[in-house]
Every structure is written in structure tokens, then in C-alpha cells.
Amino acid sequence: MDMAAASLNSKPKTSLIISTYNWPEALNLCLQSVCSQSVLPDEVIIADDGSTIETFDMIEEMKRRFPVPLVHVWQEDDGFQLAKIRNKAIARASHEYIVQVDGDLILHENFIEDHLELSKPGTFIAGSRVIMSKELSEKLLFSKETRMGFFVSGMSNIMNRFWIKSLRNYFADHYKPHDIRKLRGCNMAFWRQDLIRVNGYNEDFFGWGREDNEIAARLINIGVYKRAMKFGGIVFHLYHPEKCRERCIENEQRLAQTVTNKIIYCNRGVNQYEYVTV
């Protein structure tokens, strides 16, 4: 066995959690990109915040040919409750390391491998994304293409598109390690035991915004360090109109309380659900 294979074999088993809501075409592309990974996750859990039958049917069809277990965790549609459905998915996760993305992303072929190679006890990982234009997104949804040519037009955040392993490794501990604003919930990774220590996501966060920054703040408050995923762990974000942000001010206030008061545990969290034993 070569050194690279031995290194990956020593990495944790991984649950990939993909959040979704009523966009089966995008989720299908995301799942196709999972199938093309250089290193597959050990399971995929769809965290579904109330999608209709079209999403259910697509997932059932995908299960027939998916290379790893594909689990569908669904809750009734009662407004934007991302924190709640992520907690339900975390409780169902069968493995010790959790990589978290959104279902409107196409994953670079080395995405899971990058996250595993940067995984380190006592840390969580915050990645970034490449933004795609409406025109490019519509083209990919029509063609069902998941591989990105480097010179494809219609992308912004262009520096997030470069895969450079040496820079990925350097920036992991040098890119704004204490800045909880520099993260996206659509591209993060955690040790499951750390999520349970802080009781997962705070379900007082309802509507769009800041539930991901707030869980990062609680993890940092218990001594779990943030690592950055730059020049690796690349994801391509399909265009969609912005979600309603009417609760953002209230969510900002909750985040500020967690930071100011050094809160480490939320009352309405993952402990409301029965855990799978890992």
C-alpha cells in the first residue's frame, strides 16, 4: 500500500449531510458530483426541510444506483428551519466525522478527500464556494454536467476555484482562524462528538441566517479551533434568488449573545432526537 492510500485509510469514517428544500434538479446534480468523488463518503444523509414528492421520488430513484448508503431525513414544511433539520441529520449520522453541504452545490471531485486530509481532532473546518451565474447554472441543470472545465465562463469568487494542495495545507491554520464571520454553512466539517458537546444547532434560529456562525462560536467557546479550507474543498454554487431575510436581525442578536456571553450549549438542540450510536 502506498503512503497516500495508507494516510486516507487512517482517516475517520464520514457522513456527508446535504440540506435541501424543493429543488430536486439541483440536488440531483449535487448527488451526481458525490458519485464522482476521488474518495467517497461512507454515507450520505439528505436533510430535507419539507420538500414535496418530486424530491422524494428523485432520491428513491438515486438510491438504486448510489455507491454508498443514501438516507433521507425529512420534516414537514413549516418555514425555513435549517437548524432543526440539520440536527435531525446529525442524530442519524452513523460515523464520527460529518461533512456538511447544501443541495444547490456541485462538489469538486477532490472535495471529500480534501476534507478528510485536513480533518484534525479538536478542530472544525470552514470552507468557501464559487458563485455561478444564472446562465451557467441553467446550462448545467439542463445538461446535468458536474465537471467544471477551468476556463468555463460565468463564475465569480474566482480565487475559490483554484485547487492547490500546498496552499490548502498552509492556509488551513493561517486564514482568519478566529473570525467566525469567515465561514459558510454550505461547506463545513465537524467531529460528531464536538457537535453533541455543544448540543448541535440552536433551533431558536428560525429563518435565514447566522445559525452556522453561532454553532461555530459555541465550538470555539469550548476550545475547538477553526481551520480554513482554501485552495481545496471546492464547491460550485448554483444560482438562485436570495432567500427571505426578515429574521436576520433577530438571528444576529442571538449570535451576539453567544459571542459576548461565551455560551457553549443551546437548550433546543440535537438532544431532542434519538442518536445513532457511533
Write the layout of secondary structure elements.
Blueprint: H1 3-9, E1 14-20, H2 24-35, E2 43-48, H3 53-63, E3 70-74, H4 82-92, E4 97-102, E5 105-107, H5 111-118, E6 123-126, E7 130-132, H6 134-143, E8 155-156, H7 165-171, E9 187-191, H8 192-197, H9 211-221, E10 225-228, E11 235-237, H10 248-260
Parallel strand pairs: 1-2, 1-4, 2-3, 6-10, 7-11
Antiparallel strand pairs: 4-9, 5-11, 6-9, 7-8
What CATH architecture label applies? Alpha-Beta Complex
By CATH, the superfamily comes out as Spore Coat Polysaccharide Biosynthesis Protein SpsA, Chain A
Task: Kindly provide the name of the CATH class.
Answer: Alpha Beta
What general form does the structure show? globular
Task: Write down the oligomeric state.
Answer: single chain
Number of helices: 10
Largest sheet: 7 strands, mixed
* Low confidence ranges: 1-6
Q: Name the strands of the widest sheet in spatial order.
A: 3-2-1-4-9-6-10
Share of helix, binned: 25-40%
Order of helices and strands: HEHEHEHEEHEEHEHEHHEEH
Q: How many structural domains?
A: 1
**Overall number of strands:** 11
Characterization of this structure:
- The protein has 278 residues and is of the alpha/beta class.
- The protein has one domain (12-268): Spore Coat Polysaccharide Biosynthesis Protein SpsA, Chain A (Alpha-Beta Complex).
- The protein has helices at residues 3-9, 24-35, 53-63, 82-92, 111-118, 134-143, 165-171, 192-197, 211-221, 248-260, and strands at residues 14-20, 43-48, 70-74, 97-102, 105-107, 123-126, 130-132, 155-156, 187-191, 225-228, 235-237.
- The chain has a seven-stranded mixed beta sheet with strand order 3-2-1-4-9-6-10, with helices on both faces.
- Strand 1, helix 2 and strand 2 (43-48) form a beta-alpha-beta unit.
- The two termini are 28 Å apart.
- Residues 1-6 have low confidence and may be disordered.
